[in-house]
Automatic annotation (TrEMBL):
<feature type="domain" description="Xaa-Pro dipeptidase N-terminal">
    <location>
        <begin position="3"/>
        <end position="153"/>
    </location>
</feature>
<keyword id="KW-0378">Hydrolase</keyword>
<dbReference type="InterPro" id="IPR029149">
    <property type="entry name" value="Creatin/AminoP/Spt16_N"/>
</dbReference>
<comment type="function">
    <text>Splits dipeptides with a prolyl residue in the C-terminal position.</text>
</comment>
<keyword id="KW-0464">Manganese</keyword>
<dbReference type="InterPro" id="IPR000994">
    <property type="entry name" value="Pept_M24"/>
</dbReference>
<comment type="similarity">
    <text>Belongs to the peptidase M24B family. Bacterial-type prolidase subfamily.</text>
</comment>
<dbReference type="GO" id="GO:0004177">
    <property type="term" value="F:aminopeptidase activity"/>
</dbReference>
<dbReference type="GO" id="GO:0016795">
    <property type="term" value="F:phosphoric triester hydrolase activity"/>
</dbReference>
<dbReference type="InterPro" id="IPR052433">
    <property type="entry name" value="X-Pro_dipept-like"/>
</dbReference>
<dbReference type="InterPro" id="IPR048819">
    <property type="entry name" value="PepQ_N"/>
</dbReference>
<keyword id="KW-0224">Dipeptidase</keyword>
<protein>
    <recommendedName>
        <fullName>Xaa-Pro dipeptidase</fullName>
        <ecNumber>3.4.13.9</ecNumber>
    </recommendedName>
</protein>
<dbReference type="InterPro" id="IPR036005">
    <property type="entry name" value="Creatinase/aminopeptidase-like"/>
</dbReference>
<dbReference type="GO" id="GO:0102009">
    <property type="term" value="F:proline dipeptidase activity"/>
</dbReference>
<feature type="binding site">
    <location>
        <position position="253"/>
    </location>
    <ligand>
        <name>Mn(2+) 1</name>
    </ligand>
</feature>
<dbReference type="GO" id="GO:0005829">
    <property type="term" value="C:cytosol"/>
</dbReference>
Amino acid sequence: MSAYAEHIKTVCSRFDKALEDNQFESVLVYSGQPRVDFLDDNAPPYRVNPLFKYWVPVTESPKSAIFYRKGSQRPTVYLFQARDFWHAPVNVPEEEWQQHVDLKIIDDLSTLTEDLGSDLEQSAFIGEDFAQPVSDWKVKARNPQALIDHLHFHRSIKTQWEVDNLREANRLAAKAHVAAKEAFFAGKSELEIHHAYLSAIDFRESQVPYNSIVALNSHSAILHYDVYDTVPPKQIRSFLIDAGARYRGYCSDITRSYAYEEGFYADLVEAMDKAQQELLSEIKPGVSYYDLHVSMHLKVAQILTDFEFIKGDAQSIYDKGYTSAFMPHGLGHFIGLQVHDVGGFLKDDKGNSYERSERHPFLRLLRDIEVGHVFTIEPGLYVVDQLLEEHKDSADINWEKVDELRPYGGVRIEDSIVVGADGNENLTRDAFKELGAE
C-alpha cells in the first residue's frame, strides 16, 4: 500500500472516531475562499483550510469541499472549477489521491447542496462561513469545538506520507537558505536576500508559509522582523534568517544565524549551535516538551555565563529569571499542515488542555513527546532592551558585554525533528547535508 493510501486510511479512521464520539453522522470540510480587504474588491492571498488539505493535497482550489460519512472509508471531493473568463483556471493535475475519493467537479455551490440533499443538515461543518451561500447552509453544527479538538489531538501524530511531505518542504527551504546565505556574504540588502531566497526555489511571496524574517545586524533582535531594508548597512555584522517553504500543503520552518566575520559573534553562534544539538539528544518519547524548554534555558544560562554576560552559575541565572529576558520565546512548536501546528496544549481528544505556563507564557507546546510527533527546536539569545529594563539595576549583568552584542541583535537556530521509537530524524540538518551545505 502506498504512503498516501495509508494516510487517507488513517484520516478516515480518525474522522470515524471523532464523529462517533461527538455524535455526528457526517462532516463537510470547506476549503474556504478569498476574503476581500475592507472597502476594497481585492483579496489577500487565499489560504486553504488545513483540515481540507489533511485529506487531499489541493491548496489552490477555493470554494471546494469534502464530504465524509462516518464509516464509509471514502470521501467525496467537490472540486470547484469556476466558469470564469477573468481568471486563469485552477490547475489540479491527475494524481494518486483521486483514486481514493469520489471526485465531483462543480462550477456552482448549489450543485453541492443539491447533491447532498438532507445529508447536509445532518453534517458538522468545518471551515470559514463568512460569505453566502455557505453562511446560509443548514447544517447540524458549525465548527463544533469538541469535534475539532478531537481531530487536532490525533493529527499531531504524523503519517509517513505527511513526514515525506515535510521532508521535501525542508529540502526546498534548505536550498533557498543556501542562496540567502550566499547573498548575505555578497553584501546584499535584506530585500535582495529575500529575492534570492524566493528565486532559488521559484516561489512567489504568497507561496511561502509565513512572512520570512530576513534580518541584518540589530534587526535580528526583533523576533518577527519582516520590514526588509532596501540598502545594505554600512557595516555588515550579522544575519538571521527564519524562512520556510511549502510542499503539498506541508510547511517547513528553518532559522540560521551567520557572522560576517570571525570573532565574538561567530563564537556565540557556534556555542548556540552546539547547545541546540546537545538538546536534540534529549528528545525521547515520554519526555515532557516543557522539560526540554527548561533544559534549553539552562543551556542558554550557561552560554550567558561563559560569554560573561551574567555573573553566576546556570541554575541561579535561570532561577533569577534572567534567561527569559534573553530568550523570551518558546523552544518550539508542532509543525505540519500549519507552521504553528495545533494541539500543543491538548491533554487528550476530549478537549482537556494544559494551562499556559506562567513562567514561560509563550511556549506553544506542553505535551509529552510521542513517536510520530514533529516539532521545531529553536533556541535563541537576543538583546531586547524592553525585556532588559526589568533588570536595569542588576549588578549581575555585565552591561558592557550586552552592549557588545547589541549591534548584532541576536542568534537563533531552528530545526524540525521527527520523533522515532529508536531515534529521531532531523529533517532540517539532513536537508542541508544533502546539499553539502552543513
